[in-house]
Amino acid sequence: MKTIDESLGHLRGETRYIDDLPEPKDCLHAAVRLSESARGRIRSIDTSSALALGSSVIVLKAGDVPGENQIGFTKADEPVLPEKEWEYWGQPIALVLAETRQLARKAAAALVIDWEELPARTDPRAAAAAGDFILPSRTIVWGDAEKAFEDCAFVVSGRADSGGQEHVYLETQGAYAELRDNGTLFVISSTQSPTGIQRAVAQSQGLPMNKVEVEAHRLGGAFGGKEDQAALWASLAALGARVSKRPVKLYLDRKTDLRATGKRHPYSSDFKIGADKEGHILAFKAEYFQNSGFSCDLSPAILARTLLHATGAYRVPNGKVVGHMCRTNLPSFTAFRGFGAPQAFFVFEAALDALAQAMDLPREKLQRKNLYREGDPSYYGMPMKSVRAEESFDRVMDLVGWDKLKAEIDDFNTSHRLEKKGAALLPVSFGISFTKLPMNQAGALIHVYQDGSVLVSTGAIEMGQQVSRKIGVIVARILGIPLEWIRVERTSTLTVANTVPTAASTGSDLNGMAAKAACEEILGRLKAKAAESLSCKAEAITIDQGKVVKNGRTTALEWKELVEEAHTARIDLSAHGFYATPGLFYDMKTERGTPFAYHVYGTACIVVRLDVLRARCKLEAAYIVHDSGNSLDQKVDLGQIEGAFAQGLGWTLLEDLRFGADGRLLSDSLSTYKLPDISFMPEKLVVDILPGRDNPVAPFNSKAVGEPPLQYGIAAYFALLQALRAAKPEGETRYDIPFIPEKIEAFLKGRAL
Amino acid sequence: MKVLVNNAWVSPKSSNGMPALDFIRLELGLKGTKEGCREGDCGACAVLLGELVPASSGSWAQIDERDRRRNSDATVVDKGRGELVPRYRAVPSCLLALGDLAGKHLITIEGLASVPGGLSPVMKAFLEENASQCGFCSPGFIISLSAWLAESDNLDMAGALKAVDGNLCRCTGYGAIRRAAERLVKEFADLPHDRMTRLQRLVERAVLPASVLSYLDYAGTQFKEEKKPAHESLTATKAILGGGTDFYVRNPEPEEGFSPLLLSTVGAYSGITRVDAEGRSWLRLGAGLRITDFFASQAVRENVPGIEKFETQFASTLVRNLATLGGNIVNASPVADMTAMLLGLGAWVELRSLSETERGFRRQSLDSFFIGYKQTALKSDEFVAAILLPASNEGSDFSGSGAYDGEQGGVSLSGHFEGGIGFGARGGKLFFSFEKAAKRDKLDIAAVNTAMSFRMDDAFARSVRISAGGVAEIPLLLSKAAMAMEGSQIKGAKPKDLAKLCQTVKNLAEEEVRPIDDVRGSAAYRRSMIGRLVQAHFLRFFAREGIAEELEP
């Protein structure tokens, strides 16, 4: 009963993703027809030439949706298929089924759409000026910023822009749906949120949730892109299956995925910051114009995280931050690792940089002076505990030998005309928990089978973050048996109900705690049984490495025998576990509360080399000091740190999501949208893990790791800025990422973009 | 047609123009090969392609020798000379025509997993370093690194990184993949250079399946008997497909039954994949020559010293293994990297007619070949058969008349060289440089690219050529900029004078281009970058002269 490490299957090419699953003989393939303008009114859809292509061709339109034509969770503003108007370029407006994928795609292209153009908007500030918001804006105020600015020796203001980011999960979106007995729908979806899919399918099909069964096996990457955004594809596949009464598979080709699905929100922000003459930041103001796209999706939760990370890792006594969800005719922007926090970090670091410039102070001095300290109140009322901002900051400075590094860089810059170097530090303090309070819950179902092997089901979706391994480790530790005896299963709405999405870095925290609760229940029953067999009290029993231990001494009773005995004695060997993060509350009226279970800290240092002649840069080295608690699996955590960091670097310097003024996605292929490859990464990367501390709200004092390290990538921009200023001291700073080579060139040339 | 798929021979049902990826996944049902982007940009669909090929052209002297001995039957050169070498390369199956698999050995991830123990050392390295997270990209990485062990002369980290320059991973940030590669570098440092021995060793060490050895035995016996399709089989109505690396990007799922003529099988011109010499004046590069083979060619390297430095600026290892010289040119993309290089080297093209006899061909300079956006001087019944590179022979008595003394045919040489920049001046050391501006260093399409070459005759720059891509509707030769340098004193020139010359050339280059705005860059950026890259050429040429201190970027 030795289980095989999941990655072994990946390496041997045996792992099956949606498009790899065996298809029943009568399976139909689905394709979508996308809209071809940012906003348009549909007059009619002529299906005749599509239908003429083959007898298997079926075309479905908005009118064919049997239930509510609506899949928006937070706000009902997202149709499965639009009835009259489409609201972004690339929106699916018809579903086509056929016997082969190729025929379905061909038939979709053959549909003749009669439509008229409607005025559209793509700029968030223009939407804000017109008052076109998804939901009302939010404001957090603390202290008295206006008064504090008056007391400041230095006050600067400016603007910071950050671009969107395409997830580029290597497995594109897809779903498989099948109509089963009694009108039940069975759906396999590449999603982070099986319950969300279940709800969307039930709602759009007019079925109760108990007639929709959803499974998520494993995902070829997600990064937030398969949270709410997976619902549309599953709903379309389910619609196809319900109407055709045949299994339907919908698997997007890359171009369709890029055009039709949501991405990280672009932000355009204004900031104002002030400090006394020693460099103590006294006040900060920001107004964030979040480009939310055409629908609500997760925009409010993402904005909440922006507003709750507005001052990064720094203590600021007075402030006011305002966030607007600006509706535009673009794909609905959505969750992406970091979830609004990277945008906030960038704005604050930009403000801090502008302040450092104005004060003629090294950035790092200003940074170090204002870091959160133990017990500092956060501006939203949560006292900061187990703060490790200064510790990680100082440790990374030691690690790189900061003073020496700076001297070396100065020497280099003096002796090189055509190459310049720059270095920058970036501290992170990242709150863990869903900002939407009800989502901080999880369930688990554990079966111990008669032979002693264990099956674990939770709401945690395996999408490459190796949460299965972490949950396996938790279960093994609690039950006291080897990891090899445990199998962590895929997530199904049959085994664990009402799950929350695997997101917000909480996957192993929440689901691990739920699994722990279930394990403890079974363990209690087994201990009682063992106590009976060994004639002692249950408290005297522990289980270690698959053997029963009595009062610290290993007995002859093995786990397998004990399980067998318990089964014979008619003891329940299954248990459901549940967990809800304790202590969380938040008052939306006062904008105060404890929205997070804890914070994750760390600091990065990046060294960049600028090629002045060729107007491009190379990441020379990166050093990361990260707080990952008492790691459940160091290799897994390292993979998360390095992986998130790479995405942060990509967002900062490379990944150029570009829409035309007409709303058309210009970067609509992997030949125009570039993401980090192996040679883009720093030539040298050192990751140093801070020694663990207590963190009772996570399993075995571990810490969530998925999102916080993404922020480290932002340091690359500020390092590049140092190098650019060395090359051209009078250059005009633009806080505008991704800072692609074209912007480097514009800076060096003093050219407006 | 038959293809050895992993361990069994298969006769495909699909047409020869079907992408190999669909053949593998849909017809064979081998789902370990993943579809990630269908444009060769992610590497998830990489497979190993094994074949037995004639030994590479060898050095200039060897080619010259062979050229002299070559009889009229040009199609069977190498026959019976025993110069066959095995080659197992990684290619993106989404851009590979099924027909190109004929008689070859296709190894998918399932094939690599069929080694004894079911876990190859490459997989084991990934497992130990936790280099596979979501797993979707893993088969592609395993394929690329297995090919690296089979093919590369550089079994160090640089070689390993080059091998995966066409593979994307969105999960790991590449740290663990790098550590897995480091393990392999240590583990396989002792691999022999000789390809046959090396493959035997890799089979013994369970990197590759044993079918590799049986395939090579088989292919060795088959090769000599292979009958190339006759010239008559060519018809003007058929599309000719080079490597497919551009065609399948634009046509990711061609119509069922699509059956193009594959350049690799245009038998009457078996020189289509070869480097040959024509006398001592030209190097004739078959249009079907893969980019990898172009850069590996000893003859090319001897003629253009240092050209191999620029190899990795062209796409990725995966794409270079598939893309052809002819395809890169005939596509007439304004930013094609190879086109920019060849333009900068003063190349010519040989166009052959499909409808006439073999000898019906004409030649013209590459710069006159492009007549509009994605338009060439090709007539409807013609195809690009070869690219001619002026050979570099110091002291050779090559006249500048432009007369081509080869076979009869519609040789057209008139008027393509402006202002006396003939290809006569072949004496002197050749200087060559290539520069490219793109968002990412590797596997990115250029916003702007440029190549520059000149020969130093005595102390003077002769035959100056500067190409520029991405700055007009066609790839350009910047004749004014080049003219400004023609005849300038180089040797013994002061850094200041060189910098001044550079400034003049740069200014003219910026004036000469006519870029537009698009997703890869604005017109202003492109214009500015051409100037900067011209300076970068000068910096490369004259770094030792101390020009760095004088350049004003």
Q: How would you describe what is shown here?
A:
The complex is a heterodimer of chains A (753) and B (553). Chain A has 753 residues and is of the alpha+beta class. Chain A has 3 domains: 190 residues, Aldehyde Oxidoreductase, domain 4; 201 residues, 2-Layer Sandwich (Aldehyde Oxidoreductase, domain 4), CATH 3.30.365; 140 residues, Aldehyde Oxidoreductase, domain 4. In chain A, the strands form 7 sheets. In chain A, strands 3-5-1-12-9-10-11-20 form an 8-stranded mixed beta sheet, sandwiched between helices. Chain A has a 6-stranded mixed beta sheet with strand order 7-15-14-13-8-30, with helices on both faces. Chain A is globular and about 80 Å long. Chain B has 2 domains: 225 residues, Beta-grasp domain (Ubiquitin-like (UB roll), Roll); 289 residues, Uridine Diphospho-n-acetylenolpyruvylglucosamine Reductase, domain 3 (2-Layer Sandwich), CATH 3.30.465.10. Chain B is 31% helix and 18% strand. Chain B has 18 helices and 19 strands. The longest helix of chain B is centred in the last third of the chain and has 20 residues. Chain B is globular. Chains A and B meet through helix 1, helix 17 and helix 19 of A and helix 3, helix 4, helix 5, helix 7 and helix 18 of B.
